[in-house]
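Something for you to look into today, if you have time. Could you write out one complete protein record for me, on any chain you like? The space below this message is yours for that.
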Amino acid sequence: MPRDLGLGDRAKALGQFGVNRLAHAAILGAVKDVLPLGEAGLLVGSCQWPLLAHRMDRIRDHGGTGLLAAHLAGLG
């Protein structure tokens, strides 16, 4: 975890975790496709979103968007 992590600046935090714009868009798409709109909004709007997005990006890197969607479906 970056020592100077500031979750108040989401774009900076995502960059510190190595989540680029394309990956972030793919993650957002998967979240919106799998979770109900209200739950997706709460998840994406949380202050911990950069941490969650980083973890989701790692899952997506290892198993593709399908594996990420399966993990997200388990939340529902």
